[in-house]
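Blackboard transcription, Thursday session:
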Amino acid sequence: MKQLSIGIVGAAASVLAATVSFAQQPPVKIGLILPYSGQFADTATQMDNAIKLYVKQHGDSAGGRKIEIIRKDSGGIAPDVAKRLAQELVVRDKVDVLTGLVLTPNALAIADVSAEAKKFTVIMNAATSIITTKSPYMARVSVTTPMLNESLGSWAAKAGGTKRVFSMVSDFGPGIDAEEGFMRAYKEAGGQIVGSVRFPVANPDFAAFVQRAKDSNPDGIFAWVPGGVQPAAIGKALNERGIDPKKMKVMGQDALASDEALASQGDLALGIITVANYDHNLANKLNRAFVAAYSADYKRNPDFFSIGGWDGMHLIYEVLKKTGGKTDGEAMIGAAKGMKWDSPRGPMSIDPETRDVIEDVYIRRVEKVAGKLVNVEFDTIRSVKDPVKARMK
Amino acid sequence: MLGSMAGILFDGFAYGMLLFLLSVGLSVTLGMMNFINLSHASFGMLGGYVTVTLMQQLGWPFLATLPAAFVISALVGMVMERFMFRRMYRATDLDQTLLTIGVVFMSIAGAAYIWGTVQQPVVMPDYLSGSFLVGGVNIARYRLFLIVVALVITLLMIGGLEWTRFGAQIRAAVDNQRMARGLGLDVDRTFSLTFSLGSGLAGLGGALAIAMVGLDPGFAFAYLIYVLIVVSVGGLASIWGSFVAASLLGICDMAGKYYVPQLGSFLIYLMMVGILMWRPVGLFGKR
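(Written on the board underneath:)
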């Protein structure tokens, strides 16, 4: 009897101790830096929606610790602001993880903070190759621009069957990366670039550039513009010049055929070919469930920003589970290396050497399915790694 | 070669007319009333959202939404003039700038709150999309439509200001307020109507522009710089000046981008600097 009661007391005490230690564990603080205002505000909306959805579905604790998200607005391309916000998050708010980061300049700016404060950092979108080399505590769950555009370049020359391509890109970092990636792979695969042009980032009218493209008589056009209002504008300019994507191959990266661009262009967009690491139209079970839950809550479809937010949260949660709630930078990045999971976008993993993402890349075409314009993937390139880092070795 | 040059001229002129339609309202409020109205492009954005909402939610045809964009922007302009801008007519340029730039920020946040940060779909009817060939020159239907609308508005504005009673009242009230009051003109009412005319024109310009440039809450800032360039190069208080400046800038910008794309968007600023150094009051400016 006595033994039994001691046993009960002991059990009660250990339960109590466990609750106490759980209660005493401070929450894991996540500093989320996104451009909530300004030109890129919509990217933050889409990404944050997915983050909220992830927390809603998976609860607000992981690895035995509560999760607390602190949101900061970097307001567009502003590396100085992003760096200041990251410093404040680390020093004042004592965050354990830095994440978000839609834009490359902002991601590069906070790399120092990540490296010096030894904070686990998850890049949810920014897609320039070198970012993850700037801090040993960084991992990326989105994609890199060369992964997409080099895949597209070799596809265009081989399976795509084009011989002469004209390239037109926005004249800033990501656009130039895309141009270089596409051209390199296209030429390596035996294609010829018949002309190229870089237009200003803020460019209301594409007529002159499209005319130049047409005059060089290509059999394919590669166009890269940032998301937002420009994909539809360039689509309409192509149509005005009588360039029909059903006859001439018009190729680009995901944003060129975003839902909004398709809605503005209507049937003119039929036939546009894009390369992407995610689309809400992907036909796997996880994605169907994700898209259904997302559109129920937010009345729109998720896009590649959303999937970045979703998988970024997934990585943070899984890392915390693996470390048992330990949050020092070494432990967290160690747990992240080599982690594999099934995402709505397909199978993906974190490369243990580069801490960058490895995933499938899809080639899609705009088609009409059941009266709606959607991107239908017709070719998949499996387990693509960032080609730039592969060459760095 | 000649064909492509004619094509550049046509496209450039149409682009100029787009700039003109966006800025003609500003040559009324800033140019004639001398009010530093940086919120001009916000009214353009409002017109754009009116058009998109009527088309998407209520299924109106595009052409029918254009008068609505004008009227609603004009009414909002009138209300804001009555309660806010009227108090600032005598304020310094800096105060006017600060007030109207504040309105721009609020309009961006307001648009993001109501319509979301997403860009709006702008689907044109078939008869306004695509193009046809005339003597080897590619004529885009929507560009032709923009040119026609811009010419009609130019004629209406110049004729209306010159030959109607209301036009004469506006000119009187703007040129010499005290004298106009002394002659028994209701200057407050005239100013209120003039401001709402400018806002309405901004709304119409916005509604016409979105088919080419798209629409999201960033619109209020993205096109502010272009409309300011057009009005300052054309000269304040001159509708004709805005028209000439917009055509010139449009054609040069288009030609520059076609023949020397490396210059990019730099050319339009270079022209502005050059013209303003030669004529600080603008091409047709008087003061």
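Lecturer's comment: Confidence is low (pLDDT under 50) at residues 16-21 of chain A.
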